[in-house]
Each structure stands twice: as C-alpha cells, then as structure tokens.
Amino acid sequence: MERKELICIGCPMGCLMSVELEDGHVTAVTGNTCKRGDAYARKEVTNPTRIVTSTVRVRGGQHPVVSVKTSKDIPKDMIGACMKALKEIEAKAPVKIGDVIVADIAGTGADVVATKEVGE
Length: 120
Prior knowledge:
Layout: E1 2-7, E2 16-22, E3 25-30, H1 35-46, E4 49-50, E5 53-59, E6 65-70, E7 74-75, H2 79-87, E8 90-92, E9 100-102, E10 112-114
Parallel strand pairs: 5-8
Antiparallel strand pairs: 1-2, 2-3, 4-7, 5-6, 6-10, 9-10
C-alpha cells in the first residue's frame, strides 16, 4: 500500500489529508473536513490537472502582452506543451476579455482565452 500526504486546495480550510492507494486506486482518504476535499484528493493522486495562466504577445496594441488562461483545467503533464505553444502565438489588437486566443491548445480540448482587454 502507498500513502500520499496532501494539503487540500478545495476550500480555504487547507486540510492536511492522507490518501492511501493500492495498485494505483484510491482506497481511503482521511483528514478532509468536507466533501470537496475527498474529491480533490482522489483526482490529485490519480489524474492531476491545472488551469494554466500566462501571457500572449499582442501586435498593434496599447500593451505588448495580454493575460490569458485555459478555459478548463488540463492534464498536469501537458502544461509544458501548452506553454511551448503559447510562446509562438501573437494576438492582434483589439483583444476583449473572453476572446479565444487559441482553440484546443496542444490537443488538450481547452481553449486559451483573454482575461484582460487590450485596445489598439
């Protein structure tokens, strides 16, 4: 049996949790004080994902870059490919909040959307 210790980020409590695994399957989660903790722990040890935030260059804008984020969480092991793809992207001003800058980044199924506005 394998045991992993986690600090939960599912709510502001930050519970210290222990997850027991057997053959890659979660057998027990302890230390959480809410249901979100249990769900977070199970996902984090079997299929960790993250929302990616970054910036993208802007051509012809008031600012040289715009902040962006993925529309949903992506597998943690795809973050590098996502960041590599973003280095090659340049948006054209004007950029509005919510504009899709890149659809399906690195084949993850997540779009990269603008989180700020950049005028011309």
